[in-house]
Fold this sequence. Notes:
Blueprint: H1 3-10, E1 14-16, H2 23-40, H3 48-70, E2 72-74, H4 77-89, E3 90-91, H5 96-111, E4 113-114, E5 117-118, H6 122-133, E6 139-140, H7 150-166, H8 170-189, H9 195-199, H10 205-214, H11 225-244, H12 250-260, H13 262-280
Parallel strand pairs: 1-2
Antiparallel strand pairs: 3-6, 4-5
Amino acid sequence: MSLVNRIAEQRKIEFVVPSLRDPRVMLFVALSTWTILGQEVLYFNRSTEQIIVALVTCTLLDLMLGLITVGKILIPLSGAITGLSLGILLESYDTHVFVVASVWAIASKHLIQVRGQNLFNPSNFGVVAVILLSHGLATVTPGSQWGGYFRYAVIIFIIGMVMMWRVKRLPLVVGWLTGYILMGLLRMAVGQGGLVFVLGPMTGAEFTLFTFSMIPDPKTSPSETSSQMGWGLTLGILDGILRLVELRFSMFYSLFVLCAIRPWFGVVNERFLNLIAAFGTTRVRVPSGNKAG
């Protein structure tokens, strides 16, 4: 009997199917619907071939690396979400860019981990990596899609907020939007454009996809409500700072940096909350012996 067969017999391979309650199921369904509507109705004008290339590359590689690293056949739900996100977000005349971005994204999920959890959001990692390393071959699709119809943006935003409530990531998105708006008003105050300039991107497809698909990734975002609000607010502030210095693709860089420091974010947030709790329970005591005679 060959060594390979012995290893296969000794190591039973488990087949893992995600639960229907898994937040990624709803994200995948929503993103798939978004992609179809975007191509047929919402004027995304993306290459169907490139979307399929990204989707197939991500799902196959996610399946293979899952089998190699943990010895399990995992339904590549995360890979599918990553592939659809990259297919919609990235823009390049070279289809090879989508293959490379997909490989970087899924490789980061399986190979860059802290305490058994992937450190970076795969879609975000792929976008940032390909922007920085492709020497101008790739960019992020313009935010002004929807065919110029503002009502599409409003409908998508409402549906997105309901979806965030269902997947228990609403405080995260509220924190992000709060930080973004506050920093936008600050940018207005220092003369960096008017209201439409600083808040207009919120109506674009790029911002909406980032908000309702990339940020709430359950594997790379906090699960506790208090941590979610702080995480989202920090992300909005960091994005605003990068926009103040006029750095392009600031949202993606901000999330990349925040994910990189995520192992320490929970510790700092917990200590801060403990400090507030300790301060709130402090009472001023008056000695009982000091009574007026």
